[in-house]
Amino acid sequence: MSRMSESKFVESFKTAHGDKIESAEMLRSMRASVLVKRETFIEVAKVLRDEFGFTIPVSGGAIDYPKEDRMQMMYYLMHPEERFILIYRVDLPREDLKLSTLTQVWEAMSFHEREAHEMFGIEFEGHPNMIPLLLPPDWKGGHPLRKDFKGEGVAE
Amino acid sequence: MQEESKELRRNFDSVPGSGIVYNVVDYLLGWARKYSIWPIHFVTGCCSPEFMQVSGSEYDMERLGILPFASVRQCDCIMVVGIVSRKMALRVKYLYEQMGEPKYVVSVGACPTGKGPFYDSYAAVAVDDYVPVDVYIPGCPPRPEAIIHGMMLLQEKIKKEKRLGVKNV
Amino acid sequence: MSEPEIVPDIMRISWGPQHPMSGQTRILLDLDGEKVHRIIADLGFTHRGIEKILENRTYLQGIVPIERMVMADTPNIGLCYIKAIEEAMGVEVPERANWIRSLVCEMARINSHLYAFGLQAESTGYFPAVFLWTTVDRAWILQLFAELTGARWSLNFFLPGGVYKDLPEGFENKIIEGVNYLRRRFQKYWDAMVENYTFEMRCNDVAILKPEDAIRLGATGPVLRGSGVAIDIRKDEPYAAYGDLDFEVITEDACDSMARTKVRFREIVQALNMMEQIAKEIPDGPVRTRVPFFARPKAGEYLSRVETSRGELGVHLFTDGGMNPYRVKINSPTLRNMYVFERLAELDEILMADIPVVINSIDPWYLDSDR
Fold first, then answer.
1. d(CA A121, CA C148)
2. Most exposed residue of A5, A11, C12, C319, measured as fewest CB within 10 angstroms of its CB?
3. How far apart are the CA of C363 and the nearest CA of chain B, in angstroms?
4. Bigger pLDDT: B161 vs C179
5. What are the structural domain ranges in chain A?
């Protein structure tokens, strides 16, 4: 469990697969981040799981940048031996929020994708069970965690 | 059946001294009812560990007769303990309708009263939009002494009720 | 309701929020006779929208809603949020404050694990007496919290830069007294629960979760350590004073419900030893570095992780230079473990009567998964 393993990972990843991703960097000790393009999203995920050994799915969530007209979907992964967190990110334009589901690579991302769908409105293609997770089933308002949510859907 | 009992009551009311009988009967029934309030074994939010401490060994709620009971038809109180979201508020209303008369609602904590520290939440509601509340106990979480004081206020309310507290007769 | 379809010859039971053992959630069980064919968890009954609320609070005000995520274990959650803010502001925490933080966190861990035992004992059907024992034993922890911070459950004791105030006079002696008391009581719990023939019959070989499945499905906390995988954030990324205390990562190899319960038992013993070590060896010094009240950290993203009693909690803080956070993403441990619970029916044969024992061996706190 050496402290240099995050930078070693970032270097070896960039040399091997640098053309499929937008950027990869080490944020600080024990935190690394990879920003990938939407087209190579599943392919690079399979490489991370099989070649580099990121087998523990931790969590997933999204963030809304209305000023730059994009949303970013983030997945948190952990390596069982090296124990650092890798944040796997992909940018989506706000008009076209579609992404292939990551449950085909790590099946435990199912709950987090359901939550991102109801909170932000991102469509995940191929998800086995896309029903609301936290909001009531008769929720008629917008998507709560977007920056332009005005509180609708609360009153009866 | 209702007209006959109203007829009997009107005849009885005209007898002098009938008020004393009503007062004695109400007093005895109120005394019996106030020392056995059975709430539903149901917690909705984060004040639940404090509720369990109150029914535990140090601040014993059962010496006042308050026994959390699982079967809804045999309970007379619903203690809404903690934050109520919209999904849960429909269940609270459903349980309130299932209980038999007379029934009471106690809102424990700042959250069911008026959303508490989550006052601008899009998913939480105040419980008195769904069921009529009798006693509000503030606090986040309320101290066990405060919960017992709130239940004693409910006992005072029951003691003063006329005609068994039934609201729809 | 938009739920998965019912298969013919299968009976669906809705085990709902009003049940003494279900907690604040609804679990749909598809039953084939006594055997559980499928489990579907319906979460969201305690959803408050904490992530949205934190965007409308300043950094110091945000400690109040976020600590109410798990009421039995609030210092660990507050510490995660405060660590993210300290990283954003670049604040150095004095050493005595770190030791006090570890002390309060370990007391909360004992509190939460005792609560889990009480529920586990009640779920086997006839140990409500053990649940009442735990209310007495937790009472001294809550009494110590009230003396130290003023509140029993939601302490709000940590501030960016340290802790709110120093330990009162004679507090270390009270800690050692309480530790000795709980060590004597611990033998009773061991005899009543772990070495008890009836409890073993209910919990041994129930819901076996193999290590490779636990890793693949994303289990965390005692659920993962009860399957033999030794992952503990206090050892991987030492925070507060955990780099200086001597403890070890506790694992069990049996992978069933009894193993998960035993992990919690042994963690309580270890937490008592750590508390005693802290009370004897705590260094002197200041307890707080002053930070401006309306501070604006620099723009960026900061992820902090903490080992709560249910597993790994992560708080990912996005700042944009203003007074409020831009976004706070919370990685909840119970949401990971609820996915494992849903898949347990496919991994091992579970009977309907075992479901309360299984779910309390996973120890969910639904306000944590719903946020």
1. 45
2. A11
3. 14
4. C179
5. 5-125
Residue to substitute from A1, A134, A145, A147, interface C, most C β-carbons within 10 A? A134
| Predicted TM-score of the model (pTM) | 0.90
Q: Domain B39-160's class?
A: alpha beta
Using a CB–CB cutoff of 8 Å, tell me whether B54 touches chain C.
no
Subunits in contact with chain C (3 or more CB pairs closer than 8 Å): A, B
Class of CATH domain C11-370: mainly alpha
Cis ω for the linkage preceding B102 (within 30 of 0)? yes
**Which ipTM was obtained for this model?**
0.90
Residues B65/B71/B72/B73 CA torsion (nearest 10 deg): -90
pLDDT digits (tens, 9 = 90+) for C235-265: 988 988 898 888 999 998 888 888 999 999 9
* Residues of chain C contacting residue B82, judged by C-beta atoms under 8 Å apart: 46
Structural domain spans, chain B: 39-160
How is chain C split into domains, by residue range?
A: 11-370
B123–A141 CB contact, under 8 Å? no
Whether the Cβ atoms of residue C314 and residue A59 lie closer than 8 Å to each other: yes
Measured CA to CA, the distance from residue B122 to residue B125 in angstroms comes to 8
CA atoms within 13 Å, Cβ hemisphere of A93: 2
Where does A5-125 sit in CATH, by number?
Answer: 3.30.460.80
pLDDT at A26: 82
- Which of B41, B50, B87 comes nearest C20 by C-beta? B41
